[in-house]
Automatic annotation (TrEMBL):
This is 4-diphosphocytidyl-2-C-methyl-D-erythritol kinase. HAMAP family: IspE. Belongs to the GHMP kinase family. IspE subfamily. Keywords: ATP-binding, Isoprene biosynthesis, Kinase, Nucleotide-binding, Transferase. It catalyses: 4-CDP-2-C-methyl-D-erythritol + ATP = 4-CDP-2-C-methyl-D-erythritol 2-phosphate + ADP + H(+). It is an enzyme of class 2 (transferase). Pathway: Isoprenoid biosynthesis; isopentenyl diphosphate biosynthesis via DXP pathway; isopentenyl diphosphate from 1-deoxy-D-xylulose 5-phosphate: step 3/6. Pfam families: GHMP_kinases_C, GHMP_kinases_N. ATP binds at residues 96-106. One of its GO terms (biological process) is isopentenyl diphosphate biosynthetic process, methylerythritol 4-phosphate pathway.
Length: 313
Protein backbone atom coordinates (compact mmCIF):
# COMPACT_ATOMS: atom_id res chain seq x y z
CA UNK A 1 0.00 0.00 0.00
CA UNK A 2 1.59 3.29 -1.07
CA UNK A 3 0.56 6.65 0.36
CA UNK A 4 1.53 10.14 -0.83
CA UNK A 5 1.75 12.75 1.90
CA UNK A 6 2.38 16.52 1.76
CA UNK A 7 4.86 18.76 3.53
CA UNK A 8 3.60 21.85 5.34
CA UNK A 9 4.53 25.44 5.80
CA UNK A 10 3.20 27.77 8.48
CA UNK A 11 1.76 30.89 6.83
CA UNK A 12 1.28 32.29 10.32
CA UNK A 13 3.03 30.91 13.41
CA UNK A 14 2.29 32.73 16.63
CA UNK A 15 4.16 31.21 19.57
CA UNK A 16 2.80 31.84 23.07
CA UNK A 17 4.48 31.15 26.35
CA UNK A 18 5.84 27.78 27.36
CA UNK A 19 3.26 25.56 29.15
CA UNK A 20 3.77 23.32 32.18
CA UNK A 21 4.18 20.30 29.86
CA UNK A 22 7.10 21.99 28.06
CA UNK A 23 5.12 22.76 24.88
CA UNK A 24 4.32 26.26 23.65
CA UNK A 25 0.75 27.37 23.04
CA UNK A 26 0.43 28.05 19.30
CA UNK A 27 -1.88 29.76 16.88
CA UNK A 28 -0.80 28.69 13.42
CA UNK A 29 -2.13 28.56 9.87
CA UNK A 30 -0.80 25.48 8.11
CA UNK A 31 -0.78 24.97 4.36
CA UNK A 32 -0.03 21.56 2.80
CA UNK A 33 2.34 21.72 -0.20
CA UNK A 34 2.95 19.53 -3.25
CA UNK A 35 6.49 18.76 -2.06
CA UNK A 36 5.78 15.22 -0.84
CA UNK A 37 7.05 11.96 0.60
CA UNK A 38 5.79 8.55 -0.55
CA UNK A 39 5.43 5.79 2.01
CA UNK A 40 4.89 2.12 1.19
CA UNK A 41 3.77 -0.32 3.89
CA UNK A 42 3.75 -4.06 3.30
CA UNK A 43 3.25 -7.24 5.33
CA UNK A 44 6.59 -9.02 5.77
CA UNK A 45 8.58 -11.50 7.83
CA UNK A 46 11.42 -8.97 7.86
CA UNK A 47 10.05 -5.91 9.73
CA UNK A 48 11.78 -2.52 9.61
CA UNK A 49 12.15 0.82 7.87
CA UNK A 50 14.06 1.76 4.70
CA UNK A 51 14.80 5.39 3.74
CA UNK A 52 15.55 6.71 0.24
CA UNK A 53 15.95 10.27 -1.06
CA UNK A 54 16.25 13.20 1.37
CA UNK A 55 17.93 12.04 4.57
CA UNK A 56 18.98 8.65 3.14
CA UNK A 57 21.78 7.43 5.38
CA UNK A 58 21.05 9.89 8.22
CA UNK A 59 17.38 9.42 9.14
CA UNK A 60 17.12 6.68 11.79
CA UNK A 61 15.68 3.38 10.51
CA UNK A 62 15.05 1.84 13.93
CA UNK A 63 12.55 2.43 16.73
CA UNK A 64 13.23 6.21 16.59
CA UNK A 65 11.80 6.59 13.13
CA UNK A 66 8.48 8.37 13.46
CA UNK A 67 6.96 6.05 10.83
CA UNK A 68 7.90 3.04 12.96
CA UNK A 69 6.41 4.71 16.03
CA UNK A 70 3.21 5.08 13.98
CA UNK A 71 3.25 1.33 13.19
CA UNK A 72 3.54 0.53 16.88
CA UNK A 73 0.90 3.07 17.92
CA UNK A 74 -1.70 1.79 15.42
CA UNK A 75 -0.91 -1.84 16.26
CA UNK A 76 -1.45 -1.10 19.96
CA UNK A 77 -4.66 0.84 19.21
CA UNK A 78 -6.23 -2.11 17.37
CA UNK A 79 -4.89 -4.79 19.72
CA UNK A 80 -2.30 -6.13 17.27
CA UNK A 81 0.47 -5.50 19.79
CA UNK A 82 3.48 -7.66 19.73
CA UNK A 83 7.08 -6.64 20.03
CA UNK A 84 7.53 -6.31 16.30
CA UNK A 85 4.49 -5.82 14.06
CA UNK A 86 5.21 -7.74 10.83
CA UNK A 87 5.39 -4.67 8.63
CA UNK A 88 8.03 -3.20 6.32
CA UNK A 89 7.92 0.58 5.75
CA UNK A 90 9.70 2.13 2.76
CA UNK A 91 10.09 5.93 2.83
CA UNK A 92 10.83 7.80 -0.42
CA UNK A 93 11.55 11.25 0.91
CA UNK A 94 11.28 14.52 -1.03
CA UNK A 95 10.74 16.64 2.11
CA UNK A 96 13.96 18.02 3.64
CA UNK A 97 14.88 16.42 6.98
CA UNK A 98 14.79 18.63 10.10
CA UNK A 99 13.77 21.40 7.71
CA UNK A 100 10.68 22.81 9.42
CA UNK A 101 8.39 21.18 6.83
CA UNK A 102 7.22 18.29 9.05
CA UNK A 103 8.65 15.44 6.97
CA UNK A 104 8.84 12.98 9.87
CA UNK A 105 5.28 13.87 10.86
CA UNK A 106 4.20 13.35 7.25
CA UNK A 107 5.72 9.86 7.23
CA UNK A 108 3.92 8.98 10.47
CA UNK A 109 0.59 10.19 9.09
CA UNK A 110 1.14 8.29 5.83
CA UNK A 111 2.00 5.13 7.74
CA UNK A 112 -1.24 5.36 9.73
CA UNK A 113 -3.28 5.76 6.51
CA UNK A 114 -1.37 3.01 4.67
CA UNK A 115 -1.63 0.50 7.50
CA UNK A 116 -5.32 1.23 8.06
CA UNK A 117 -5.84 0.26 4.38
CA UNK A 118 -3.44 -2.73 4.49
CA UNK A 119 -5.10 -4.12 7.62
CA UNK A 120 -8.59 -3.24 6.25
CA UNK A 121 -9.44 -1.38 9.46
CA UNK A 122 -12.77 0.33 9.90
CA UNK A 123 -11.21 3.52 11.23
CA UNK A 124 -11.92 7.11 10.22
CA UNK A 125 -9.52 10.00 9.80
CA UNK A 126 -10.67 11.60 13.08
CA UNK A 127 -9.83 8.42 15.03
CA UNK A 128 -6.44 8.27 13.27
CA UNK A 129 -5.92 11.93 14.26
CA UNK A 130 -6.17 11.11 17.97
CA UNK A 131 -3.37 8.53 17.52
CA UNK A 132 -1.49 11.02 15.32
CA UNK A 133 -1.55 13.75 18.00
CA UNK A 134 0.24 11.43 20.44
CA UNK A 135 3.04 10.92 17.90
CA UNK A 136 3.74 14.65 17.40
CA UNK A 137 2.08 18.06 17.25
CA UNK A 138 2.27 18.29 13.43
CA UNK A 139 1.12 14.73 12.61
CA UNK A 140 -2.68 15.39 12.57
CA UNK A 141 -2.31 18.16 9.98
CA UNK A 142 -0.49 15.82 7.58
CA UNK A 143 -3.55 13.53 7.72
CA UNK A 144 -5.98 16.27 6.66
CA UNK A 145 -3.81 18.56 4.49
CA UNK A 146 -5.42 21.59 2.84
CA UNK A 147 -5.13 24.81 4.81
CA UNK A 148 -6.02 24.75 8.51
CA UNK A 149 -5.89 26.79 11.68
CA UNK A 150 -3.98 24.91 14.38
CA UNK A 151 -4.21 25.69 18.09
CA UNK A 152 -3.09 24.02 21.32
CA UNK A 153 0.37 22.69 20.50
CA UNK A 154 -0.69 22.69 16.83
CA UNK A 155 -2.75 19.50 16.95
CA UNK A 156 -6.24 21.02 17.25
CA UNK A 157 -7.35 21.83 13.70
CA UNK A 158 -10.13 23.59 11.86
CA UNK A 159 -10.12 23.93 8.07
CA UNK A 160 -9.57 27.39 6.53
CA UNK A 161 -11.32 28.36 3.29
CA UNK A 162 -8.93 29.14 0.41
CA UNK A 163 -9.96 30.28 -3.03
CA UNK A 164 -6.69 29.99 -4.82
CA UNK A 165 -3.70 27.80 -5.52
CA UNK A 166 -0.61 29.56 -4.20
CA UNK A 167 2.81 29.08 -5.82
CA UNK A 168 5.92 28.70 -3.69
CA UNK A 169 9.66 28.38 -4.11
CA UNK A 170 11.31 26.32 -1.39
CA UNK A 171 15.01 26.74 -0.47
CA UNK A 172 16.60 23.79 1.39
CA UNK A 173 19.53 24.67 3.65
CA UNK A 174 22.77 22.67 3.86
CA UNK A 175 21.73 20.97 7.10
CA UNK A 176 18.71 20.81 9.39
CA UNK A 177 17.81 22.59 12.63
CA UNK A 178 16.44 20.82 15.70
CA UNK A 179 12.88 21.91 16.56
CA UNK A 180 13.37 21.82 20.39
CA UNK A 181 16.55 23.87 19.96
CA UNK A 182 14.69 26.58 18.00
CA UNK A 183 11.90 26.71 20.62
CA UNK A 184 14.64 26.97 23.28
CA UNK A 185 16.21 29.85 21.37
CA UNK A 186 12.94 31.83 21.20
CA UNK A 187 12.57 31.38 24.99
CA UNK A 188 16.14 32.64 25.43
CA UNK A 189 15.59 35.66 23.15
CA UNK A 190 12.37 36.50 25.01
CA UNK A 191 14.07 36.17 28.40
CA UNK A 192 16.81 38.57 27.28
CA UNK A 193 14.71 41.16 25.48
CA UNK A 194 11.34 41.49 23.84
CA UNK A 195 11.50 40.42 20.20
CA UNK A 196 8.40 41.60 18.30
CA UNK A 197 5.55 39.10 18.12
CA UNK A 198 3.31 38.68 15.09
CA UNK A 199 -0.30 39.79 15.56
CA UNK A 200 -3.61 38.03 14.98
CA UNK A 201 -4.14 35.31 12.39
CA UNK A 202 -7.41 36.92 11.22
CA UNK A 203 -5.93 38.99 8.33
CA UNK A 204 -4.16 35.88 6.97
CA UNK A 205 -7.42 33.94 6.99
CA UNK A 206 -9.10 36.84 5.13
CA UNK A 207 -6.30 36.98 2.54
CA UNK A 208 -6.65 33.24 1.97
CA UNK A 209 -10.35 33.58 1.30
CA UNK A 210 -9.76 36.51 -1.08
CA UNK A 211 -7.15 34.41 -2.91
CA UNK A 212 -4.82 37.34 -3.65
CA UNK A 213 -1.18 36.25 -3.27
CA UNK A 214 -0.04 39.90 -3.02
CA UNK A 215 -2.29 40.45 -0.02
CA UNK A 216 -1.15 37.19 1.59
CA UNK A 217 2.50 38.01 0.95
CA UNK A 218 2.32 41.08 3.20
CA UNK A 219 0.86 39.05 6.06
CA UNK A 220 3.14 35.98 6.30
CA UNK A 221 4.59 35.84 9.83
CA UNK A 222 6.55 33.43 12.00
CA UNK A 223 7.56 34.06 15.63
CA UNK A 224 10.22 31.33 15.30
CA UNK A 225 11.96 33.13 12.43
CA UNK A 226 14.02 35.33 14.78
CA UNK A 227 15.18 32.21 16.65
CA UNK A 228 16.03 30.29 13.47
CA UNK A 229 17.96 33.29 12.09
CA UNK A 230 19.75 33.73 15.43
CA UNK A 231 20.96 30.09 15.22
CA UNK A 232 21.60 30.22 11.44
CA UNK A 233 22.46 33.87 10.52
CA UNK A 234 23.01 32.94 6.84
CA UNK A 235 19.22 32.62 6.49
CA UNK A 236 19.02 36.43 6.28
CA UNK A 237 20.92 36.24 3.01
CA UNK A 238 18.69 33.46 1.68
CA UNK A 239 15.53 35.43 2.54
CA UNK A 240 16.91 38.52 0.79
CA UNK A 241 18.00 36.52 -2.26
CA UNK A 242 14.48 35.09 -2.80
CA UNK A 243 12.89 38.53 -2.76
CA UNK A 244 15.65 39.92 -5.01
CA UNK A 245 14.89 37.06 -7.40
CA UNK A 246 11.30 38.29 -7.72
CA UNK A 247 9.29 36.54 -4.96
CA UNK A 248 6.49 38.57 -3.36
CA UNK A 249 7.87 37.72 0.10
CA UNK A 250 9.78 35.04 1.96
CA UNK A 251 9.54 33.37 5.34
CA UNK A 252 11.35 30.73 7.37
CA UNK A 253 9.20 27.58 7.34
CA UNK A 254 8.24 26.61 10.92
CA UNK A 255 11.38 26.02 12.96
CA UNK A 256 13.52 26.30 9.82
CA UNK A 257 15.98 26.35 8.25
CA UNK A 258 13.99 25.87 5.00
CA UNK A 259 12.78 29.15 3.51
CA UNK A 260 9.50 29.46 1.56
CA UNK A 261 8.92 32.22 -1.00
CA UNK A 262 5.44 33.17 -2.17
CA UNK A 263 5.25 34.01 -5.89
CA UNK A 264 2.55 35.70 -7.95
CA UNK A 265 1.92 32.65 -10.19
CA UNK A 266 3.39 29.36 -11.45
CA UNK A 267 5.53 31.01 -14.13
CA UNK A 268 6.99 33.50 -11.67
CA UNK A 269 7.80 30.63 -9.28
CA UNK A 270 9.82 28.88 -12.01
CA UNK A 271 11.74 32.11 -12.72
CA UNK A 272 12.41 32.80 -9.03
CA UNK A 273 13.54 29.18 -8.55
CA UNK A 274 15.98 29.41 -11.47
CA UNK A 275 17.49 32.66 -10.22
CA UNK A 276 17.67 31.53 -6.59
CA UNK A 277 19.43 28.31 -7.67
CA UNK A 278 22.18 30.43 -9.17
CA UNK A 279 22.55 32.68 -6.12
CA UNK A 280 24.50 30.08 -4.13
CA UNK A 281 22.59 30.67 -0.89
CA UNK A 282 21.09 27.21 -0.39
CA UNK A 283 21.59 23.49 -1.14
CA UNK A 284 18.50 22.81 -3.28
CA UNK A 285 15.59 24.80 -4.70
CA UNK A 286 12.13 23.35 -5.46
CA UNK A 287 8.86 24.76 -6.65
CA UNK A 288 5.63 23.68 -4.99
CA UNK A 289 1.98 24.68 -4.80
CA UNK A 290 -0.65 24.52 -2.13
CA UNK A 291 -3.04 23.73 -0.74
CA UNK A 292 -2.99 20.00 -1.56
CA UNK A 293 -4.81 17.11 0.18
CA UNK A 294 -3.47 15.18 3.16
CA UNK A 295 -2.07 11.63 3.22
CA UNK A 296 -3.83 9.45 0.62
CA UNK A 297 -3.40 6.00 -0.85
CA UNK A 298 -2.03 6.17 -4.41
CA UNK A 299 -1.26 2.50 -4.99
CA UNK A 300 -2.32 -0.87 -3.60
CA UNK A 301 -1.29 -4.49 -3.99
CA UNK A 302 -2.26 -4.64 -7.67
CA UNK A 303 -1.19 -1.13 -8.62
CA UNK A 304 1.96 -0.53 -10.67
CA UNK A 305 5.01 0.49 -8.67
CA UNK A 306 4.66 4.24 -7.98
CA UNK A 307 7.14 6.71 -9.41
CA UNK A 308 9.47 8.52 -7.00
CA UNK A 309 8.17 11.72 -5.36
CA UNK A 310 7.61 14.48 -7.93
CA UNK A 311 9.44 17.40 -6.44
CA UNK A 312 10.28 19.35 -9.58
CA UNK A 313 7.75 21.37 -11.51
C1 LIG B 1 7.68 24.19 14.79
C2 LIG B 1 6.58 23.38 14.17
C3 LIG B 1 5.55 24.34 13.55
O1 LIG B 1 4.55 23.66 12.85
O2 LIG B 1 6.95 22.48 13.15
P1 LIG B 1 8.41 22.16 12.48
O3 LIG B 1 8.89 23.48 12.01
O4 LIG B 1 9.30 21.57 13.54
O5 LIG B 1 8.15 21.21 11.36
C4 LIG B 1 5.87 22.51 15.26
O6 LIG B 1 5.40 23.31 16.31
C5 LIG B 1 6.73 21.37 15.76
O7 LIG B 1 5.92 20.26 15.80
P2 LIG B 1 6.56 18.77 15.93
O8 LIG B 1 7.83 18.71 15.15
O9 LIG B 1 5.47 17.79 15.63
O10 LIG B 1 6.94 18.77 17.42
P3 LIG B 1 6.77 17.66 18.58
O11 LIG B 1 7.41 16.40 18.11
O12 LIG B 1 5.34 17.60 19.04
O13 LIG B 1 7.67 18.34 19.71
C6 LIG B 1 9.06 18.42 19.59
C7 LIG B 1 9.55 19.47 20.54
O14 LIG B 1 9.24 20.78 20.02
C8 LIG B 1 8.86 21.67 21.06
N1 LIG B 1 7.48 22.13 20.85
C9 LIG B 1 6.70 21.56 19.89
C10 LIG B 1 5.42 22.04 19.67
C11 LIG B 1 4.95 23.09 20.48
N2 LIG B 1 3.71 23.59 20.34
N3 LIG B 1 5.74 23.64 21.43
C12 LIG B 1 7.01 23.18 21.61
O15 LIG B 1 7.72 23.70 22.47
C13 LIG B 1 9.02 20.90 22.35
O16 LIG B 1 10.34 21.13 22.81
C14 LIG B 1 8.89 19.44 21.90
O17 LIG B 1 9.55 18.55 22.76
N1 LIG C 1 10.55 9.48 9.04
C1 LIG C 1 11.38 10.46 9.41
N2 LIG C 1 11.75 11.40 8.52
C2 LIG C 1 12.59 12.41 8.88
N3 LIG C 1 13.12 12.54 10.11
C3 LIG C 1 12.79 11.63 11.04
C4 LIG C 1 11.92 10.55 10.72
N4 LIG C 1 11.76 9.83 11.83
C5 LIG C 1 12.51 10.41 12.79
N5 LIG C 1 13.15 11.49 12.33
C6 LIG C 1 14.01 12.39 13.14
O1 LIG C 1 13.25 13.58 13.38
C7 LIG C 1 14.02 14.77 13.20
C8 LIG C 1 13.13 15.90 12.67
O2 LIG C 1 12.61 15.52 11.46
P1 LIG C 1 11.62 16.30 10.48
O3 LIG C 1 10.23 15.90 10.77
O4 LIG C 1 12.13 16.05 9.12
O5 LIG C 1 11.86 17.84 10.81
P2 LIG C 1 11.00 19.08 11.29
O6 LIG C 1 10.47 18.74 12.69
O7 LIG C 1 11.96 20.21 11.30
O8 LIG C 1 9.90 19.29 10.32
C9 LIG C 1 15.14 14.36 12.24
O9 LIG C 1 16.32 15.02 12.57
C10 LIG C 1 15.25 12.85 12.39
O10 LIG C 1 16.35 12.48 13.18
Amino acid sequence: MTVRVPSKINLHLSVGDVRDDGFHELVTVFQALSLTDEVTVAATDDPGVEVYGEGEGTVPTGANNLAWRAVQALAAHVGKSGDDPKVRVVLRKGIPVAGGMAGGSADAAATLVGLAALWKLDIGRDELATIAAKLGSDVPFALYGGTALGTGRGERLVPVLTRHTFHWVIAFDQKGLSTPRVYGEIDRLRAEGDPPRIGSHAPVVEALSSGDPRQLALLLGNDLQAAAVSLRPGLRRTLRAGVNAGALSGIVSGSGPTCAFLCSDAQSALEVAAELSGAGVCRTVRVAHGPVPGARVIGGDDAPRPSPPKVHA
